[in-house]
Write a structure and sequence with these properties.
The structure is a homodimer. By secondary structure, chain A is α/β, with parallel strands linked by helices. Helix content of chain A is about 30%, strand content about 20%. Chain A is built from 9 helices and 12 strands. Chain A has helices at about 10-15, 20-25, 35-45, 70-75, 110-120, 140-145, 160-170, 205-210, 230-240; strands at about 1-5, 30-35, 45-50, 65, 85-90, 100-105, 125-130, 155, 170-175, 180-185, 195-200, 215. A 7-stranded parallel sheet of chain A has the order 8-7-6-11-9-12-10. In chain A, helix 5 (about 110-120) runs parallel beside helix 9. Chain A is elongated. The N and C termini of chain A lie far apart (about 40 Å). The interface of A and B includes residues 218, 224, 227, 231 and 233 of A.
Chain lengths: ~240, ~240
């Protein structure tokens, strides 16, 4: 096991850059912090280097022992993690497209992470994000997924093209909206579908609403406002989890 | 309209203490920041004093004009609000107990706020929190409710006593749990019910699970983990919004 004592070390400085989106995009890597996330990333074989201030943690090699302040330099302020892993981003393609969650510009990292976590819990096949959706490897997103991020294909795509290709393939595209929509209880349950959720402020883009096969709304009385992750949970549950 | 130029002003210092839970509990007041929340609080007649760095904002009196740095002193760091309102906490009692959301130790302010917002959207009659639940007037909770907090009775209670009193009154008490529970799809739909959600880490307390009339679980395959606000949204929707 290697030791690095100085935070000024060239490799530490390189890895610290992964706290920035630009560097994550450039290298196809990201940082996972904390035991739970690191273990989830290991299950998927995504960990390239483990960096820890606890010599006894993990069997994994290569492991680098560093001082506590170096771990802090490599982790987000909020986390009190003792270990950080340099991981490669998973570029997996969905095996099936029977149950797809599509996100059109979700901006809040906690919402994105929670939606991914819910999609995994209900065995959806993939999560497809518009280019404007918040960065998947933002540390808040990763934490909110509770590690489930590593267990489902999550893609970025031009949603107009992507939904058109799904429709050609016989997948029913469902857009969520507040007006001019079928109440969820009355929505037919297609065998294969993709459900589109929108930006927290503006909802699903007009062009995607128009191109969808059907528009659905969650019946609400009262305040008429649901958090997008809650709306997504209700829709994913109602439209059906996939059988084993 | 009064002007206060100095952040050292005695009243400003008193109001700034409302950023602390202890002072909110002592005085029965809290701070609402930003136009949307302030307008929602005004609808309910909760605003006592409006403090703003924009003379033209609001017809409300008493209004106090202050420098921008004073508004910042009275608001949470994240918010860029121009106005802050000193509000009184609403101690309302539910008119009905047909649809009750009960929270046993929810700790994340965003989760609590989102659950309250969902309960309002589905016209639940009240949200009842255990004593260990995160402070309702935490600024993150208030922001996450999007102002809906002001439109529903939210109480703190000893949940063992409270649920027993509901049961005596003929309300079906439903506890959520992962094991030894009825799948949600198979749960009978009682006319009057209270649904209990638990702490993010530990779920619903054992004693409340045992005392409940029925235990329910949301059918999941895969990762077996839902955020508590998502689980609450699914349960509140499935068990039924109240008709107008």
């Amino acid at each position: 096991m290697e030791r690095i004592e100085s935070s000024a070390n060239a490799r530490i400085k390189e890895w610290a850059k992964l706290l920035q989106k630009k560097e994550r995009d450039r290298t196809g890597r990201f940082l996972a912090e904390g035991d739970h996330l690191i273990q989830e990333a290991m299950k998927e074989g995504l960990v390239e280097v483990l960096i820890s201030d606890h010599a006894e943690d993990y069997e994994f090699e290569p492991k680098i022992l560093v001082p506590e302040h170096t771990v802090r330099k490599l982790s987000s302020s909020v986390s009190g993690a003792h270990s950080v892993a340099v991981c490669r981003q998973k570029q997996s393609v969905p095996e099936k497209t029977d149950r797809i969650l599509i996100l059109d510009g979700v901006q809040d990292p906690g919402n994105l992470g929670t939606l991914i976590r819910t999609a995994v819990s209900f065995r959806y096949d993939a999560v497809v994000c518009s280019m404007e959706t918040v960065d998947l490897y933002n540390d808040k997103v990763i934490r909110s997924t509770q590690g489930s991020l590593f267990h489902i294909p999550v893609l970025r795509a031009d949603l107009a093209e992507y939904t058109a290709s799904l429709q050609k393939d016989g997948v029913c595209v469902i857009a969520t909206t507040l007006e001019d929509a079928v109440p969820l209880k009355e929505l037919p349950r297609p065998d294969r579908f993709a459900v589109i959720l929108g930006n927290e402020g503006n909802g699903v883009g007009r062009h995607l609403q128009d191109a969808a096969d059907v528009r659905v709304r969650i019946e609400m009385s009262g305040f008429e406002s649901l958090n997008v992750a809650v709306a997504g949970g209700i829709l994913m549950y109602e439209l059906g989890a996939k059988a084993e």
